[in-house]
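Board notes (copied after class):
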Amino acid sequence: MALSKIQTAEMLDAPNLGRRNLIINGAMQVAQRGTSVTGITGNGYHTCDRWYLQVSSLGTHTVTQETLTSGNAYNDGFTKAFRVDCTTADASPASGDHIFFQQKIEAQNLQHLAYGTSGAKSLTLTFWVKSNKTGTYEIMHYVTDAGRQVNSTYTINSANTWEKKVLSIPADTGGGGINNDNAEGFRSLFYLAVGSQRQSGSTPTSWQAYDVGNEAPSQTVNIGDSTANDWAITGYQLEVGDTATPFENRSYGEELSLCQRYFYKFINTGLSDQYNFYSPYSPAQITAGLPNSSAICPMTFPTTMRAAPTVATTLSGGTLNRQTSTPFGYVAQIGTTSTGTHYISQYLANAEL
């Protein structure tokens, strides 16, 4: 049946709801590294994939992949969140101290933004946030290659209540744009606490050259000043245009695959016959305990990684003589000095930006 003119017009006027979230794991579903990390005093990727927490001498914190069972964000369809809890307080941060939360976006995924040209596109940022600390929080949006920034602020109005925020990010027609490569292109830094060094300037509402004093001048909240403090976020969507559209729900499998481009955790299931071993010695010689026997174990990643990853390998026994990685997989040479050939029980492949 042919479409009517009215139906066709409605379709043309409707927003493009296909692939639009520039963020990976915005619903905080994937957590290959685990669901809780305690004693955090420095920088790292904790729990939810692709999300980085930077802590510089400002208290001690626990990060969890929180499970939601009620509240406004849950009612909007979100069941997981990234949560930070202060466990050791620092009420008087030094000048350079800070805490921020961010995701770095790969530059070649951002070419359609056309930054640095007259056709540069604006962005809309939507997220759900909750904290016991009400007040003004600041976000610095940063273009890495051009060294440029513009800032946004949001206010948590009600303590311990999920609130939805929608922010506009103007197009950057100046600067040198974003390189077309596999390095970092763009990030938004959510400040949770900040020292005076990053508050000495003024909040830039239009794109300009980065200045450390302009990172978070309007921030009034320090979640590190009491062990009663917490901050959580979910439903994070960054999309082209000046209109916030419904959250792009990707399947768990697709979201996991996108995350595995940057980090992959392999754990042996106990099935030793899943490996292909290559050794200069016969099985009989290895069983007899031939000294310095070795096995070459090739591993293929489930998806092509951003770059050749750094691999941390755990063996069932024996010695890891050497290993080499590419974006497609890696090879480990395992040496043994006792009966049998040992195998890889776990490896972590890290190609994060």
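Comment from the instructor: The longest strand covers residues 184-194. The chain has four helices and 20 strands.
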